[in-house]
């Protein structure tokens, strides 16, 4: 990733002081011993690296020979010089690194590749960079050892740079807690660290950098007994003085590669160490090759990513290593994303279309980062549009009322919240407003739309792959603004308002159902407990949906909430009492048993789907560009 640890400038000091070595790429690869590691096998897994100062991750799929960068949802951008540790099951930890202006960070994130999202864990006890994170699978601990921390200097003493070896900590994965442990007898800077059996080995590193920009190297080996929580000095020295190398123990040998040979000079050597004997496997004739961690072990090979854009493969049995460029790899297919990426980052936002504002805008709230953004729209300038978040995370708009004409429109748009692109989609067969949209198996169902002529409502379905609209059968009761959702392979429409021959609007309590296979509507005997329209809904389980809010015939807000299984409505906790608007148009989202949804007034609600307790969430109200 190519970023460097920088010396902090001192008053009166020269602007051309030397800097310590690059550090974010010096995190030794960490893996449990082979005998206790049943996975990963790279035929189905990924190698990865984070993109510093960005909310992106670079993935390499061995099976699909694909390398690609994906945006992700994270509580903070990945830090430069952060440390990475693989925890198994496509989950890894990222800790420390640099914040803005080279301030050291103690932020910690747990990231799930399958979901392309991460959450904040407890901060490290002290800020640090380029520490080695070692996952001890037996106890679900992550040890932090061997990085760099800020050195507190006397202001009258000019130090060469302001770092020291980091303190020793243990993170308890199960209860999200850091524990301070006894420090290594010698706090070396950027030693090579690895796990062997139940021992952590800390080897080499440097104690200082001389004025002529040379490392004062060390080859002493210390080891930490995890069970006894004790350090001691090994009875052998490391046969090579390694600095920040990547290391992994496998099949009775320790593989060591990367790191620094001399100051600002990356090592091109690969060693295997057995006992106190080092064998030089090979030298790479690649300038400035930086080996990245973590590495991943299959039954016969160990894989590493390296800069510049290389895949390194070590054959365990033959003790040989090879490399290939990643530049020629093709991007993944759509089928790959469907099967391998189960949660698109664009879909972790819930949205509300603020169509009543003088400048039409789309507000989103990211449930991972807890941040709110506002997207000012250029072409999408319609009130009463149908809005849907597609499976790929983009937002689909259908119909509405034109700003200048005040008449129903048939225009449709797709908005990408990442690129902020507005792309016109195939138009509706007829102008409609008030549409309710759901997506099922690659088809968008747009129902309960009405035009400027009469009381009847119309429905269409849009086939995403073929980009074509098709007419749907009429509903049993012609209702506007029903609450629509998918339950048990059927489309439900609850409540809404009917318009009689005199143009009078009457709110209803109908429960109408359309079977996705036959596309036929029926009306159920069961009715909603209230006459209401514009209720909200959230999927609780595969067989139950939460229905809530709405308004009655006089426009009064309904705050009741019901759990519905297709046959029965069970009353749950009411919505909060401090809001006067409980009508919903934009879709909600469920994540980790918590439901989130915006009201049409831009009020964000949260409900615990275990207790059904509601909260109103305060979000930043200033409207700015994303």
Descriptive labels:
Neuraminidase; five-stranded antiparallel β-sheet; 1 helix; 56 strands; 1% helix; disordered C terminus
Structure overview:
With 626 residues, the protein is an all-beta fold. The chain folds into two domains: 305 residues, Kelch-type beta propeller (Neuraminidase); 274 residues, 6 Propeller (Neuraminidase), CATH 2.120.10.80. 1% of the residues lie in helices and 42% in strands. It has one helix and 56 strands. Strands 26, 27, 28, 29 and 30 form a five-stranded antiparallel beta sheet that branches. The radius of gyration is 30 Å and the shape is elongated. The chain starts with 45 loop residues before the first strand and ends in a 9-residue tail after the last strand. Keywords: Kelch repeat, Repeat.
Quick rundown:
This protein is mainly β.
Q: Into which percent range does the helicity of residues fall? A: under 10%
What value does the Rg take, in angstroms? Answer: 30 Å
The dominant shape is: elongated
Tell me the number of strands. 56
**Biggest sheet overview:** 5 strands, antiparallel
Assembly classification? single chain
Give the class-level CATH name of the largest domain: Mainly Beta
End-to-end separation:
27 Å
What is the CATH topology of the largest domain?
Neuraminidase
Question: For the record, what is the CATH homologous superfamily label of the largest domain?
Answer: Kelch-type beta propeller
The CATH architecture of the largest domain is 6 Propeller
Q: Strand fraction band?
A: 35-45%
What is the topological layout?
Layout: E1 46-50, E2 56-61, E3 66-71, E4 83-88, E5 91-95, E6 108-112, E7 117-120, E8 132-136, E9 141-145, E10 148-150, E11 163-165, E12 169-172, E13 177-180, E14 192-196, E15 199-203, E16 206-209, E17 215-217, E18 221-225, E19 230-233, E20 246-250, E21 253-257, E22 260-262, E23 265-266, E24 269-274, E25 277-283, E26 290-291, E27 296-297, E28 301-307, E29 310-315, E30 320-325, H1 334-340, E31 349-354, E32 361-366, E33 371-376, E34 382-383, E35 386-389, E36 395-402, E37 408-416, E38 421-425, E39 436-440, E40 443-449, E41 458-463, E42 468-471, E43 483-487, E44 490-494, E45 497-499, E46 505-507, E47 511-515, E48 521-523, E49 536-541, E50 544-548, E51 561-564, E52 569-572, E53 589-591, E54 594-598, E55 604-608, E56 614-617
Antiparallel strand pairs: 1-2, 2-3, 4-5, 5-6, 6-7, 8-9, 9-12, 10-11, 12-13, 14-15, 15-18, 16-17, 18-19, 20-21, 21-24, 22-23, 24-25, 26-28, 27-28, 28-29, 29-30, 31-32, 32-33, 34-36, 35-36, 36-37, 37-38, 39-40, 40-41, 41-42, 43-44, 44-47, 45-46, 47-48, 49-50, 50-51, 51-52, 53-54, 54-55, 55-56
């Amino acid at each position: 990733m190519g970023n460097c640890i920088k010396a902090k400038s001192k008053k009166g000091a020269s602007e051309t002081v030397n800097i310590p070595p690059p550090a974010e790429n010096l995190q030794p690869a960490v893996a449990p011993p082979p005998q206790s590691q049943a996975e990963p096998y790279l035929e189905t897994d990924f190698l990865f690296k984070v993109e510093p100062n960005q909310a992106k991750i670079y993935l390499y799929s061995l099976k699909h020979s694909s390398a690609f960068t994906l945006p992700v949802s994270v509580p903070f951008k990945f830090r430069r010089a952060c440390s990475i540790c693989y925890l198994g099951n496509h989950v890894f930890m990222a800790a420390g690194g640099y914040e803005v202006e080279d301030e050291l960070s103690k932020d910690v994130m747990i990231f799930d590749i399958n979901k392309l999202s991460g959450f904040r864990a407890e901060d490290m006890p002290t800020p640090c960079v380029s520490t080695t994170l070692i996952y001890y699978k037996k106890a679900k601990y992550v040890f932090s050892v061997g990085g760099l921390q800020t050195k507190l200097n006397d202001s009258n003493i000019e130090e060469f740079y302001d770092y020291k070896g980091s303190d020793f900590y243990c993170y308890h994965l199960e209860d999200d807690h850091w524990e301070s442990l006894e420090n290594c007898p010698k706090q070396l800077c950027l030693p090579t660290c690895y796990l062997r059996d139940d021992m952590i080995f800390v080897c080499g590193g440097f104690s200082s950098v001389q004025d002529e920009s040379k490392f004062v190297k060390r080859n002493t080996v210390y080891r930490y007994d995890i069970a006894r929580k004790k350090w001691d000095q090994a009875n052998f020295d490391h046969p090579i003085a390694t600095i920040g190398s990547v290391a992994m123990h496998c099949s009775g040998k320790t593989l060591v590669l990367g790191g620094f040979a001399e100051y600002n000079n990356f090592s091109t050597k690969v060693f295997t160490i057995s006992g106190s004997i080092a064998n030089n496997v090979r030298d790479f004739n690649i300038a400035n090759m930086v080996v990245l961690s973590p590495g991943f072990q299959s039954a016969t090979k160990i894989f590493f990513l390296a800069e510049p854009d290389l895949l390194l493969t070590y054959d365990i049995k033959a003790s040989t290593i090879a490399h290939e460029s990643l530049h020629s790899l093709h991007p993944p297919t759509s089928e790959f994303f469907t099967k391998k990426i189960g949660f698109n980052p664009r879909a972790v936002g819930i949205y509300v279309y603020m169509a009543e504002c003088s400048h039409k805008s789309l507000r989103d709230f990211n449930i991972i980062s807890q941040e709110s953004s506002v997207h000012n729209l250029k072409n999408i300038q319609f009130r009463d549009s149908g809005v849907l978040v597609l499976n790929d995370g983009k937002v689909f708009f259908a119909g509405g009322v034109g700003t200048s004409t005040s008449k129903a429109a048939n225009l449709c748009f797709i908005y990408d919240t990442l690129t902020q692109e507005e792309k016109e989609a195939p138009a509706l067969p007829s102008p409609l407003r008030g549409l309710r949209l759901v997506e099922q198996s690659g088809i968008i169902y747009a129902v309960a739309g009405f035009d400027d002529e009469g009381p009847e409502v119309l429905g269409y379905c849009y086939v995403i792959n073929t980009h074509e609209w098709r007419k749907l059968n009429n509903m049993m009761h012609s209702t506007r603004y029903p609450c629509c959702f998918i339950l048990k392979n059927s489309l439900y429409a609850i409540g809404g308002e009917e318009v009689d021959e005199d143009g009078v609007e009457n709110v209803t309590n109908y429960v109408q159902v359309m079977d996705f296979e036959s596309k036929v509507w029926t009306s159920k005997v069961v009715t909603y407990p209230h006459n209401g329209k514009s209720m909200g809904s959230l999927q609780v389980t595969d067989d139950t949906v939460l229905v809530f809010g709405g308004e009655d015939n006089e426009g009064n807000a309904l705050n009741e909430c019901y759990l519905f299984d297709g046959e029965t409505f069970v009353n749950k906790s009411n919505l909060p009492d401090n809001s006067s608007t409980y009508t919903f148009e934009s879709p909600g989202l469920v994540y980790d048993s918590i439901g989130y949804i915006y009201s049409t007034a831009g009020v964000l609600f949260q409900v615990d789907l275990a207790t059904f307790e509601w909260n109103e969430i305060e979000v930043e109200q200033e409207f700015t560009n994303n």
